[in-house]
Write a structure and sequence with these properties.
With about 220 residues, this protein is of the alpha/beta class. The protein folds into two domains: about 5-140, Response regulator (Rossmann fold), CATH 3.40.50.2300; about 155-210, Arc Repressor Mutant, subunit A (Orthogonal Bundle). It has helices at about 10-25, 35-45, 65-75, 90-95, 110-120, 130-140, 145-155, 155-165, 170-180, 185-195, 200-210; strands at about 5-10, 30-35, 50-55, 75-85, 100-105. Strand 3 (about 50-55), helix 3 (about 65-75) and strand 4 form a beta-alpha-beta unit.
C-alpha cells in the first residue's frame, strides 16, 4: 500500500512542487493545507497518513502548536516537522510537540523520502547525529512552543512575568507592587519587551504574546 501524505505549508507553489516530487517517488498525496486549522481538519478526515508540517505556519496555530494539538487529540498521524531553522531549541520543541521527525526545508528528495518511509514504519527521523535515544531523552524537557519563542526572543524570566501581567487589568503600579519592583523598573521591562516583540503598545504586546504562546490563551 502506498504511503499517504498530507503537505501543510502556507506557500502554494512549494506545496505543489513538493507534491509532484513525492508522487514521482510513488507516494500518494492525500491532502494539502495552508494553515494550522486546515491541517487539523485534513488529518481528521485522512487518518493513517504522514504529515509534512511547516514549522512556521501562519495564523492561530503555527506548526509546533498544530503538532501539539494533534498529539492531544490522539490522531492517527505521523508528523514530520519541516523547518528552515536548524537549531536545537526548534528541534527539541518539535519533539515535545509530538513530532516523529524533523527535517530541513532544503533537504534533498532522497533524504525526505527516506525520512517519510522511516516514520511511516514506526521509527523516528531527526537527522544528523540526533538519535531516537536523544529524542526520547528530551521529551520530558520544557521545550513547549512558548518556551521556544521565549528563548528565540531572548526574553528573561522577569520579562516573561511582566508580559503575562500586562495581559491582566493590573496597572503598572500594581504590577510593580506584585513583583516588588519600582514603577520605573517595570516601565524599563515593558520597553524591552516591546522592542523584542517588535510592537509599540501594551495591547500589541499582549496580542503578540498570545500568538507566540507566551501568554495562556494563545492556542
Amino acid at each position: 500500500m502506498s504511503i499517504r501524505i498530507i503537505i501543510a505549508d502556507d506557500h502554494a507553489l512549494w506545496r505543489a512542487g513538493l507534491a509532484q516530487l513525492l508522487e514521482a517517488e510513488g507516494l500518494e498525496i492525500a491532502a494539502q493545507a495552508a494553515t494550522g486549522d486546515e491541517t487539523l481538519e485534513a488529518v481528521r478526515v485522512n487518518p493513517g497518513t504522514v504529515l509534512l508540517l511547516d514549522i512556521a505556519m501562519p495564523g492561530r496555530l503555527d506548526g509546533l502548536a498544530t503538532s501539539a494539538r494533534l498529539k492531544e487529540r490522539g490522531d492517527d498521524v505521523k508528523v514530520i516537522i519541516v523547518s528552515a531553522r536548524d537549531d536545537r531549541d526548534a528541534l527539541f520543541s518539535a519533539i515535545t510537540a509530538g513530532a516523529h521527525g524533523y527535517i530541513a526545508k532544503d533537504a534533498d528528495v532522497a533524504q525526505l523520502v527516506g525520512a517519510i518511509h522511516l516514520v511511516a514504519g514506526g521509527g523516528s527521523a531527526f537527522g544528523g547525529s540526533i538519535t531516537e535515544g536523544l529524542a526520547a531523552g528530551v521529551a520530558g524537557l520544557d521545550y513547549s512552543p512558548g518556551e521556544y519563542e521565549r528563548r528565540r526572543l531572548d526574553l528573561s524570566e522577569r520579562e516573561l512575568q511582566v508580559l503575562r501581567l500586562l495581559a491582566t487589568p493590573m496597572t503598572a503600579a500594581q504590577i510593580a507592587a506584585r513583583l516588588f519592583l519600582s514603577a520605573k523598573t517595570v516601565q524599563n521591562h515593558a520597553s524591552a519587551i516591546y522592542q523584542k516583540l517588535g510592537v509599540h503598545s501594551r495591547s500589541e504586546a499582549v496580542v503578540k504574546g498570545m500568538k507566540l504562546h507566551l501568554i495562556s490563551g494563545g492556542s
